[in-house]
Specification:
Rossmann fold; 2 domains; seven-stranded mixed sheet; two-stranded parallel sheet; 8 helices; elongated
Length: 263
């Protein structure tokens, strides 16, 4: 679908009609690609603001996934994405994927093995993301790397805690991360997927650790749950998932399941 803002054409109706014709032509070309892949596809033009129109249509149509394309991973593009993609990420009633072609990869024709990086914190949303991965027919030879970032190890010597308390919290956080990857691996392995697990030793904010792992491993896509375990993240889209989606150099899918979207 394409959301066309009619406001710039308010005084030039003929230009607006030509714009609609061009958009529809481009959409039909994209639809043909999907149909040739055996998918049931149709085109839709919606009038209004893209920031609101995409989510409105997704809600009314009952979409399971919204995909937003991006073929440039530059810092400028990630800033530009903020207006539309960030709104979709925050307010969509369903899962969202930002699709990027990795630098130097070129257009991908047909199916090829993929490298899927999944991040989990053991929360319900993380488990929903893993079940979503497990339910898909990934191309033969695809690999999944499952990681969990200890939530405490990037906080360096908080002044309000004693040394022994810091060490206890670090150990508890590490154990939680190990349990999360162990339980998550079970979900993926039951589906017959090839899985490796890791609790990264790289110490930084969780979203930066995830991005670091994706870059180092050469991931094609990062899959995360929309919300973490904290109470705040259950109200607003998790800051970790949003930061990963907006700053990654590869595709990112944010799985939203069982959490009401903002209106």
């Amino acid at each position: 679908m394409h959301v066309l803002d009619p406001y710039p054409f308010s005084r030039t109706p003929l230009s607006f009609d030509r714009a609609k014709e061009l958009v529809l032509h481009n959409l039909e070309g994209a639809v043909q690609v999907l149909r040739q892949a055996g998918l049931n596809a149709s085109a839709e033009i919606s009038l209004g603001s893209p920031r609101r129109g995409i989510n409105k249509f997704a809600r009314e149509w009952g979409a399971d996934l919204v995909m937003v394309g991006c073929n440039d991973a530059s810092d400028l593009t990630r800033l530009f994405l903020g207006s539309t993609a960030q709104s979709v990420l925050r307010h969509a009633p369903c899962s969202v994927e930002i699709v990027r072609i990795r630098t130097g990869q070129g257009a991908v024709v047909g199916f090829r093995p993929m490298k899927i990086l999944a991040a989990t914190d053991g929360s319900d949303c993380s488990k929903a993301a893993l079940r979503s991965i497990a339910a898909r027919p990934w191309p033969s030879g695809s690999e999944i790397k499952l990681i969990s970032v200890p939530e405490f190890h990037y906080l360096q010597n908080p002044p309000y805690l004693a040394f022994v308390e810091v060490k206890d919290l670090e150990q508890a956080s590490l154990e939680d991360a190990r349990k999360a990857v162990s339980g998550g691996a079970g979900i993926l392995e039951e589906a017959g997927l090839k899985v490796t697990t890791d609790v990264p030793s790289f110490e930084d904010r969780p979203f930066r650790v995830i991005l670091h792992e994706a870059e180092g491993w050469g991931a094609d896509i990062i899959v995360v749950g929309s919300h973490g375990r904290s109470g705040f993240d259950r109200v607003v889209l998790g800051s970790v998932s949003e930061a990963v989606a907006l700053h990654a150099r590869c595709s990112v899918e944010v799985i939203r399941s069982g959490v009401p979207a903002e209106t």
